[in-house]
Amino acid sequence: MQDLKSKKICVLMGGRSGERAVSLRSGKRVFESLKKQGFNVISMDLEDDLISKLKKQKVDIVYIMLHGRFGEDGVVQGLLGMANIPYTGSKVLASALAMNKLASKRVFDALGIPTPRYLEIDTSSDVKKEAQRIRRVFPFPLVLKPVSEGSSLGVTLIKKEDDLESILADSVEKYRDVFIEKFVRGKEVTVGIIGKDEDILALPVLELVSKNEFYDYEAKYTAGMTEFILPARLSKPLYKKTQQIALLAHRALGCYGLSRVDIMIGKNHVPYVHDVNTIPGMTERSDLPAEAAHIGISFDELVVRILESAF
Predict the structure, then answer these.
(1) How far apart are CA 158 and CA 163, in angstroms?
(2) Cα–Cα distance, 260 to 150 (Å, whole number)
(3) Tell me, what's the pLDDT at 269?
(4) In terms of CB atoms within 10 Å, which end of the chain has fewer, N or C?
(5) Do residues 230 and 108 share a domain?
(6) For residues 97 and 117, what is the distance between their CA atoms, to the nearest angstrom?
(7) Residue 310 gets which letter from DSSP?
(8) What angle, rounded to 10 degrees, do the helices at 287-294 and 299-307 form?
């Protein structure tokens, strides 16, 4: 702890992604915690001349609180690695794999980790042809997702066949790379992972009961839209299995220091991994701090544990 307090830390937040507002909230809360605990800390918004600014400020460690593209996808991690500046969380490959939902699902498939059935969309093909192909493979309702977005941005539940073409065309125009996923009915849960090496820990399973049809962007960041149930209402064997699968998914992608694994427990009692977030939110409504608090890890302690992942 004393060694860390001798370092100059920069909380990096904001950025250009659709999750900028959430990142600023996460970053501000982490900055305030570090400041209160006596660390030498500054905050910085992500800009093009990042490395020169960090060097000018003589920063020793970067605490990454960026969400989404250009921050959670390995781009910033690569820059910091080239500049030999230590940073928190997962490294380049794990960050890139986790951000790309299709790439991560291929890894899960290869290792036998349950994940909902999916179909990649050929964005160079005619929308009508792609819609016909989807109808042949998937029953309705089905889910359309951008390949590389977080916070459920762009995730759409398509209930009617008649809506498929228009939603597909709009999503391709907005996000370019999208895919279709089977809609799994069941319980939405999430499992935070913290620590490294032999000290890795799966946090309590958090059940998310959204007032919307699924845990979308509005449900995640609007007070009163989602009920948190800790621990999740699962049988002991299924609860343990869910934590084990979350750990498998974290390790499969090579994540480091922290992650949050989003899972749907199907009616068949199988935990299906939707995706892995390498930089989970740290706002007052975020899942990871709530799970840590449930086993007595305060927000300040959680912040320091994540800081330690820089080494």
Answers:
(1) 7
(2) 12
(3) 96
(4) N
(5) yes
(6) 18
(7) G
(8) 110
Structural domain total, the chain: 3
Give the span between the Cα atoms of 169 and 176, in whole angstroms.
9
Contact 273, 251 (CB under 8 A): no
- Give buried/exposed letters for 6-21 (b at 16+ CB in 10 A, else e): ebebbbbbbbebbbbe
Spatial separation of the C-alpha atoms in residues 249 and 20, rounded to whole Å? 26
Q: Contact at 8 Å (CB) between 26 and 65? A: yes
Specify the amino acid at residue 202.
A
User: Which domain, by its residues, includes 20?
Assistant: 2-88
**DSSP secondary-structure letter at 56?**
H
Looking at residue 237, its pLDDT comes to: 98
Q: What is the CATH number of the domain that holds 195?
A: 3.30.470.20
Q: What would the pLDDT profile of 184-225 be if each residue is shown by its tens digit?
A: 999 999 999 999 888 999 999 999 998 766 665 565 656 677
Please tell me the distance from the alpha carbon of residue 211 to that of residue 302, in angstroms, as a whole number. Answer: 29
pTM above 0.85, yes or no: yes
| Cα separation, 92 vs 25, whole angstroms | 24
Instruction: Say whether both 199 and 293 belong to one domain.
Output: yes
Which helix (H) or strand (E) segment holds residue 119: the answer is strand 118-120
| Contacts with 55 (C-beta within 8 Å, 6 or more apart), sequence order | 83
Per-residue HEC secondary structure of 135-191 comes to HHHCCCCEEEEECCCCCCCCCEEECCHHHHHHHHHHHHHHHCCEEEEECCCEEEEEE
Residues of the chain with pLDDT under 70: 1, 150-152, 212-223
What pLDDT score was predicted for residue 107?
98
For position 118, what pLDDT does the model report? 95
As given in the structure block, the two tokens for residue 161 are 């066949």
Taking residue 187's Cβ as centre, other Cβ atoms within 10 Å add up to 22
In angstroms, rounded to a whole number, what is the distance separating the alpha carbons of residues 109 and 90?
21
Q: What are phi and psi of 207, to 5 degrees?
A: -95, 135
Burial grade of 268 (CB within 10 A; 0-12, 13-18, 19 or more): exposed
